[in-house]
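Lab notebook, page 48
Experiment: co-folding of the full assembly
Goal: obtain a model of how the components sit together before planning crosslinking
Operator: M.T.
Materials (sequences as entered):
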Amino acid sequence: MFRWDVVWQYLFSGLFFNAAWTTLWISVVAQFAGVVIGLFLALMRMSRFSWLNWPAAGYIWLFRGSPLLVQVLILFDGIPEMFPSGEASKILTPVVCVLIAFSLNEGAYMAEIIRAGITSVDAGQMEAAKSLGMRYSLAMRRIVLPQAARVIVPPLGNEFNNMLKTTSIASVIGLLELTGTAQVYGSQAFVTFEMLIVATFWYLVLTTGWGYIQSWIENSMDPNRTGKAEIIEKKGWTRRMVGFDSSRSFQSPQAGRGTSIPRS
Amino acid sequence: MSGTTTNSGSMVRGENIVKRFGNLTVLNGVDLLVKRGQVVVIIGPSGSGKTTLLRCINHLEKIDGGSIYVDGELVGYREKKGRLVEDTDTNIARIRSKIGFVFQRFNLFPHKTALENIIEAPIHVLHEPKDVVIERARTLLDKVGLADKADSYPHKLSGGQQQRVAIARALAMNPKLMLFDEATSALDPELVGEVLKVMRQLAEEGMTMVVVTHEMGFARDVADHVVFMDKAVIVEQGPPEQLFDHAENERTRDFLGIIR
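Observation: model returned without errors.
Model output:
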């Protein structure tokens, strides 16, 4: 018998507020670290020095080629076994393990996204910056990366949406984020299903909220400045979240799937 | 500074420059001398190596042999235990900051306005105060006839306007030498004149310039010295009157005959 009263009782409880907060801050920290790691990996990958190239390629190969769940378990269960004194397990608490594993893993994915973004910027931009006496780092920071950001931000937003949900993996090592909380408290009172519904509600709150923020960020990046306004569509949150855009659906027959409306 | 100071009269001195792309030799032992205040125009058919030569002068291309001195300093390389090795990023950047470069395709920064394009390097490379730089940028925009376009983004400007902003951007660094790489080749015919006018004015003011161009009228009027390149070497060079009217070499005469 499905107990709606349990769902209502827990929907806005402090228990799930805290769980949602845990999910959120772990996601934000891991994503931020992932972007930083990814930026360095991307620059290493693109370097003309092979001694920078290979370690980055190896890193990306390793973390993209193995499951995140296994990486978390290796950190939490595997590494402490190598140090029987118990020091390692004191440092490697569930939160620390999750943050490390998620950051390292995300870095590998962000590296490819950032590399694609940098590659999309015309080589003439770097040359122009260099010819004005800019060092590589200054040219990257002031000229290339701001232009690459336009290409990087949309997939970055999708990565973060994924991150919010993938943190559920942390529940296997006992971290009480949304999924973990639902499982632990649900199984105690035989209301697992109800609790998972509550958790789902909160995941949707987080991802929907992020959908709004992502739309706002992308729209505020003003594609007009690049002269590429025609190929960058403004995306409403419905397009982002559900795959269609309510504000567009009744416009014109040409405004179908995959077409964009040139803005003048 | 550097122990390799050369004849103080020369701004650029290239000796026996060799450049290869894979198996293809693009520059095969080229010597180039540009005196201070001189306007040197390099002409020649496509693929003759003239653009590559220009790009070697500010080390946008590495060279495989020979040496290039700009303002008495060796460009792109330094001596280490008796051998030449590539110079540090910082050192190359410092030398480049004295050399203005104007690209065929403008390469303005699309995320910055005309004014922001111009003030970027003086502020972040030369670390000059912002108000001083903005003042200078406005003067330069006025000079190239675009005072009213300071706040326009590049894609709102015509090709000729973009190229004039690009020239102003290079001039904002107070360069000792300006390099022009087919600065009018990407422009619609009716826009060529406005860019050439700015270049002409610069030449009159005494700027040292190396210009790669297909504009023979400009070469004849403005150049102090014309260099004709073909097949990776300098075939003939001299004052414009000599080259255009009394070319000695068969290839030079052919080229000028065809182009006219």
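Interpretation: Residues 43 and 228 of chain B are 5 Å apart (CA to CA).
Next step: discuss with group before ordering constructs.
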